[in-house]
Structure formats: C-alpha cells, structure tokens
Amino acid sequence: MQLYEWLSSAASNQSSGKALVYRDTYLSWRGLLHRVDRRAQELHALGIAAGAWVGLMLGNVPDFVILALALSKIDAVVVPLDPTTGNRELEMVLEAAPLRALVTRPRGGEGNATAGLPYYAAPPTQRPVSGPPSKFVPEARRRLQGTLLSCGLYKRTAPANLTEGDPPEVVQFTASVGGDPKGVVKTGANLAAAAESIRKTLEVTARDRVLCSLPLHASYGFDFGMLTSLANGATLFLEDEVSPKRIVKLLREQNIDFFAGTPALFGSLVRVPTVKPLKATEARFLSSGSALPASIAEGFHARFGVRLLSCYHSTQAGPLAVDRAGKEPEGVGRAFEGVELRVASPKGERLPAGDSGPIWVRSAALSTVSVPKIHLPKRADGVPIGGLDDGWLRTGDLGQQDRAGRVLITGREDDLVKVDGKRVALGEVEGCLEACPKVKQAQARVVTDDLGGPMVVARVVRAGLCKAEDIIDHCARNLAPYKVPRQIEFCEAI
Prior knowledge:
Helix content: 25-40%
Strand order of the largest sheet: 2-1-11-10-12-13-14-15-16
Structural class: alpha/beta
Number of helices: 11
Strand content: 25-35%
CATH topology of the largest domain: Rossmann fold
CATH architecture of the largest domain: 3-Layer(aba) Sandwich
Number of strands: 27
Largest sheet: 9 strands, mixed
C-alpha cells in the first residue's frame, strides 16, 4: 500500500495543489484521491482482492496512474506491461506472472480478436480460428466504467510467501540473460528506499515539476516519474507522445525542473530548431539507458543552458549512481545516497581503483526475488551474473571506479545490452533471425549513433534469395519493436 499512502499524505498536505497534468487537463491531489478511491471500489467489485496480480498494459496516460494507485489501495500487485508487447512475449509474461486481471486499451485491426487483447487472450467465442492455443484465456471481460479500457479476468492465484514479511507491491519486467521476460518483484520497502535515495541525492521537493515522457511500464520511467512525484508530493506532467518539439514546449512553458530521458531523446531535442536557453535554475535532467555522448551533453548545455546528469539505473536495483555536477558525461558519477557500489572480482573481492571488473551493488532498493525463479548457472570463478553474495548483486555490467568513487561503465559481461533504456538479449535476436527460413546464419550487435542512439543491427548469411525488408518483417512479427534490427548487412560468412 506504499503508493497509496504517499497519495493520501500528499492529498492531506496540499489537497488543492496540482498532482497530475496531462495535455490540457489536470487533477489536484484531492481530485486524484477521489478518482483512485472510486476505481478501487470498482476493482474490488470485479473480484480483485488483496494479493492479486493485475497487469496494466497502458501508455503514459492518467489511467495508468489512477489504476496503479487504486490497486495499491486494495493491496493488489501492480504489473506494468509494455502496450507493444507481441503475442509470443505476452504468452511468456502470463506464464511467469499469475495475473488475476489484465487491463488494456482497444487496439483495433485484430480481425475477430477482441479489441485490446491478443487473439489468444480473448474469450473462446471471440477468438479467431487460426493461431496457437493458449492456456491463458480470461474467464470474463469487463469494460471499466467511464473508459474504453478492457479488463480481462483470469482464474489464477498469486504465489504465496514470495517475499518474507513485506508483501509484493510492483512487478517490473525486464529481460533475463536468455532474453525471456523476467519479472522483478518489488516490495513497499524497496520502493520507499528507491524514493528516499532519489530525494536525498537529487534534492527533490514538493515544489518540483516532474516531466515523464519515458514509458511508465519501464522501471526507469516509473522510478524517476511516478515514484519520484508521489513520494515527494511533486506535480507530475505525463506525456505519451515522444515528439521533440512538444517536449521542448513543455520544458519551457511548464518550467520543468526534473526530467529523465535517454541520450537518443536528448539528441533529438538538440536538433530542434530555434531553441532558446531554459529559465530553470535548479533543473535536474537525467540521462540513462546507454552511454551519454559528449557531443550531445555539450550540445544540450549550449542550447538549453542545462547540464545533463549521466545516470546509472537498473530494474532490479533501482537508482545506482549519478554525475551530480553534469561535467563528466563519459562516467556515471558516484553512488546514490543509501547505495553501495564497488568494482570487484567475480568472487566479490574489491579491485584497486582504476582496475576494470564486474560492478557490484547493494541497497535497500535492491529486489532479490523474480518470477519465474531463475536458476543461475554455477561458475568456477565466482558468483554468477545476477547472483547475490552477502546482499551484493553482481549486475553483469563492467566498469572502473576511481579513488573518489566515480564510476565509468565499460561494457557487459553477457550479451544483454540496452536499447532505448530497455534490455535486449542479442542471443534472442540472433535466434529469431535464424528461425527465418531464408537465413542460414546471423549475428546481432548494437551500434551507437550520436543522433539516433543505440540500435540493433545484424549480419546475415542468406539461405536463399531475400531482401532485407523480408528479414526485418519476420523480426517485427516475433520481437518487441525495440529488439528489431534497424539494418541488415548481408555477408558470405560470419
């Protein structure tokens, strides 16, 4: 109930203040509390009780915030999901997360399938004839009052005793080492620790105006958007249209002073014509998800008058490190308040300053539980990637740390990379490519463009005549959009 407790506190302290702004409308804290309470009653009437897991497959819209808070009030578990999730990946998510309900928006264009749900998630009488069978078919569907949102109800029970003492509050999905969806289970204590770490390190107050254009279904957007706003009673500006011109307009007209983005997003803002410096004097604009090129950092400062703060964040551990001064974009600065971070050997032994090695973290925000439970392979040289040793997590990132505690990330220990702030397993992309009948062999990698940011490209050995468009179309049907290769390079051998 941590999220709802923050809302109740803010509504008591500043009831008429602006809580949520979306386009030309806004809700006060009192108004937001009223809507949340009504929605909580409706969800409870649908049979969603304490402990139930509920998926929210929505974008950055007020309904996401209202539903998440309503679920928190009835002690249900919020499971944010990417609205662009394909059928194959959603099937794996449903396998991992025992959802009692799934809330979606109408998608349309799905033939006989029920709008807003994959073909296999629709009731049997409305499912198309073709398509693989699924054991995750909702028993009923309901339209949430006053919305176009569809709520599919399942006969499933949440796992018992998943976390000791403090029950789960949020489950955030990322990619496992093999590329399959992994749900990171976070308790109220995890969320409170992350919020406190952000508040102390970045000096967030109720006077701040927080802009969130990053997806709320991803932990980076959730932590530095909704979580930061609720915990501090700050005004949250939601944006679901990632248009550089629109974001620049919001930054200027709304005097935004807290904003998290990716290097690719900030690069697109730099290229907007006729930009003048912002008036914000205490702006904290964070950049994470991939390395921040110095050209983008310098260009943004020159045009907007604000220094970008290079940040290190992960789904499992939350906020980790930030360059508070914003003068060293190549690094990610020092650890957040309440976070311990070190560069150590695979066995956890701290390395001398300047040496490269695995990055280890420990904090109260760190989640130690995931679904499905992953059995990490044993390693003769020490703790496996993603494993824990005395509360320390081996993140899988490689880096260096100087004597002042500043961290430089140099790479990964496995094939997991980040694209647009989301984890991608290159092995999964290669497997999808090689599943195409016209592909004999494939190799995927990530390249970084200072203008377009990181993107997946692939080298392919053809098994027959085909075009790059055919291969990309095949990937688009089987992978999430951010995993699809942007370029195909044909070669004779790999």
